[in-house]
Structure formats: structure tokens, C-alpha cells
Amino acid sequence: MDLCCVKVMLLFALCAQEMRKFLALPIDQKTTHAARVTAKLKNELVGEVEDEVEEEEKGGNEKTKNLKPIKSRTVPPKQTSGGRMKQGKWKGSRKFKIYLSVMTKRSEILRMDEAIAKEEKLLKHLERSIERDNIRFEEFLRENEKKSVEARTMYEQEARSTQEKNNEIRRLTAEILTIKSELARFEEILVDYKNYKDLLFKLSPPEWQEAQRSNVISCKGTKEDQNRELKDTDEPELYFTDPQQLLDLMTELTEQNLSLIQNSTRVEETLEQLQQSLKTTKKNQIHRCTKLHLVTFTGPCNHFAYPQDVLLDALSEKVAEVHRSCVDDRMTKLNTLEKLTNIEKRLSLLLQSLESIPEEKLELMKKIKDSERRTRYCVPQWLNAPPSAHLAIEFFTCKKTS
């Protein structure tokens, strides 16, 4: 029995090893391999049983052979009924053991057949599932390939469409730039033509200009006239019908301009002479006024001497007048020195603010003040000025007003 158990264990080990080999095989070779393994196991089990039976039979034959010489040498005792019973029991127990081992191995074979059948069924199920998965995977690959082809086709179409649109955009942009350049050129030509039209209109006689203005006003009276003007393709009416007329007029205007330029040159020269004489007269008058003031304040004591108090009072009145006009026009109780201090402060503030004024405005203000100062100075001396100064001042004022 121990030997049978060892053999059964070896068979199980072999079965496990064969099962590992079986699982490692491809799907198409598993069924044939399983059939071969089962047949091999059956043959091995049947062969082992037959070997045991043969060994037992050989053992019995050897015993009988060993007993034969004994029989020949000795006389066998007579067998009793008890010996035959023991021998029958021994043969029965041996047969039972053989039968039991055969049944055990048969049950093991059946169990292994069932396990193999289950494994084959599971393998078939796995094969079917693998086949389904393979079919699905192939369908997925075909669908994916189809979608990739469609996507590639769509991408190529979109790329071509985008390229065509970009080319169209570039073409339209170039056309727009060309049209804009043409439009700018036409606008320049239109401006030139309008300038020529205005020039021709201004060169025409005033009577003709008034007649044209009245015609334009009458044409704008109704909407129908406006539509008629828009649809009218006739050339505009011009005063000059011959280019020679325009050339003659330009020649005449050129001569008039030359004569006017000559007259203006002569007038400018006369003006410069008058301005020079005016400056000389002005200097003489200023020198004369200075002398008169000196004679007034520093003359002989018996004729023009004034007390010092009178001069101080006059000076204080003058300071007060300047203070009222420049600093504060209210009545104050400040003395003359305080008023002078306030005037100096006011003057310093004005000078600081004068520095912050832009140069252009400052120059303009200086010119205005100079003109006012000259006017104040020249008007009181109008009667005492010589005839040349009268003429210069009159000409200067006329030029300024014009």
C-alpha cells in the first residue's frame, strides 16, 4: 500500500507538471495535448495494476517452485480444511487488495477525468471568450482604422480649405490695398481738380461768379433738381473757353503782382526812412524832456526852489498812488517805507511769476506793452512833433490798422 501511495503521489506530481505545460501551450494545441495526457495516465495506471498482479503471480510461482523440491524430498502433509480456509482467505484478501487498489486508482482516474473535463470546458469557454475578444478587438481596430482614415481625410480637407481661405484672404487683402492706393491717388487728383476749379472760379469775373452762385442756390431748391444734378453727366460750366484766355489773365496778374511788389518795396523803404526819422525825433524829444525836468528840479532857488517837506509829501503821494494801484486799493495806515516794502515784495512776486510764463506768451505781452507805451508817449507829443513825424505816425497807424 505504501508503494501505491508513493506512485499515486508521483502521478499527481506528473499531472501537475503536465497541467503547467498544458496551460503554457497555445490554444490550438491544448485539446490534443489533453487527450494525449489522459490516455497516457490511463495506460500508466492500468500498467501498474497489471505489474502488481504479475509480481504477485511471480511471487506465487516462485513459492510453488521452491515448494516443489521440498515435495520431492519430503512428503507433504495432508491438507486439512483449516489450511484450505486460510489459503482461501489469503487469496481473497490479496484479491481484495488488488481490487481495492484498482477501484481507488479508477476513482482517481475518474476524478482526474472530471477535473480534466472541467478544465477542458473552462478552456473552451476561455477560448470562446478569447475568440470573442479577438473578434471585438479586430472590429475595434477596423473601426479605429476607419475613424483614423476619416479623421485624416477630414483633416486634409480642412487643411486644404484653410489654405484656400488663407490664399483668398491674402488675395483680397492685396486687392484692398490696391484699391486703397488707387482711392488715395484719385482723392489726390480730385483735390487737385477742386483746387484748379476754385482757382478758375476765382479768376473769373465777379459778375459771372454771382450768376453761378445764384444758379446753385436755385438748383438746390427741390429734390428733383438734386437728383438731376447727380445724374447729370455733362461737363461743368466754365468761364474760360480757351486756354489762351487763362494764359492772358495769368500774364496780366503777374504784371500786376510785379507792380505791387515794386510799390510795396518803395513803401517799405519809405517806412524805414520814416521809422528812422521817428526814432531820431523821439530821442530828441526825450532828451528835451529830460533837460526840462532837470531844469524844473535843479534850477535857481529863487525861481523853482521847493521846500523839502513839499517834495517828500509829493513823493509819499506818488508812493501811495502806486501802492493803491499795484498792491492794495484800500485805505491803510502804513508809512511810506512800509508801502515801498510792500511794493518791492509785490514786484518780486511778479518777477517770479514772470519766469514761469512761456516765452511765446511773454514775447507777445512785451510787444503789446511796448505798443501801448509808444501810444501813450506819442499821443501827448503829437502837436509838438515836426511834420515828418506827423506823417510817419499817421502812416504807421494806418499800416497797423490795415
TrEMBL record:
Pfam families: DUF4200
Signal peptide: 1-24
Keyword Transcription: no
Domain of life according to the entry: Eukaryota
Domain DUF4200: 97-205
Coiled coil residues, start to end: 109-189
GO cellular component: cytoskeleton
Keyword line: Coiled coil, Signal
This protein's name: DUF4200 domain-containing protein
Organism whose genome encodes this protein: Neolamprologus brichardi
